[in-house]
Amino acid sequence: MSLTAVFLLALMTAIATGLGALPFLFVSGVARRSLGSANALAAGLMLAASAVLLMEGTSAGAWLTAGGALVGAAAVVLAQRVLSQHESLSVGELSGADARRAVLIMGVMTAHSFAEGIGVGVSYGGGDSLGLFVTTAIALQNVPEGLAIALVLVPSGVSVWAAAGWAVVSSLPQPVFALPAYAGVEAFTQALPFGLGFAAGAMVAMALVDLLPEAVEMAGWRRVALIAQGALLAGLAVDVALGL
């Protein structure tokens, strides 16, 4: 398959991420309790994605995956501490805590996309059929990941279309990194476990350090636990159905 075809197919996986924001076109307002529920839902989806990434990474290289997870988690904790020192931070329509959370989730999901882009490129190195299967699976998986981003951005005041746009932006590393991964399969295959671990560790830290504590404060721990667990199980079920 040509590099152009690989790029365009990987670009479709990035565009699919924006679809996750579209359900908010049918939601008018978000109460404080509903915002807590949204954070719990986003956290559950991120934990499900993290579990899948860790399983994939461990099968390719357990130590590299573990090292990547530690670095990813540490990076999020460090970023949160740095951002907490900037009370007046503003990003577009957001400011304060909402802006800091937006920066964190965009950073975490973008890091996740680097690993997925490498996975797409490497899969095409194993043949067109394998590559098309992995690309389709990742595109479908990206929809709930886009929803996780929208669940954080839209209730904070970001428009639905802007949230969809940011979701797509967070996935642009997929087509960008799919090309060199396809051209240099061997080298990128060796680095993939660390990237998968990094993305998983970052998402776990984001869920545990930021999203879930905020959700409990807004909606109560019983409601948050139920929603987060349900989202986690649903996310894992989707991955099993996709054969990931």
UniProtKB/TrEMBL annotation:
TM helices/strands, residue ranges: 6-26, 38-55, 61-79, 147-168, 188-212, 224-242
Subcellular localization: Membrane
Entry protein name: Zinc transporter ZupT
Keyword Transmembrane helix listed: yes
Listed Pfam families: Zip
UniProt keyword list: Membrane, Transmembrane, Transmembrane helix
Coiled coil: none
InterPro entries: ZIP
GO molecular function: zinc ion transmembrane transporter activity
Topology relative to the membrane: Multi-pass membrane protein
Superkingdom of this protein's organism: Bacteria
Single GO cellular component term: membrane
Primary subcellular site in the record, as a coarse category: membrane
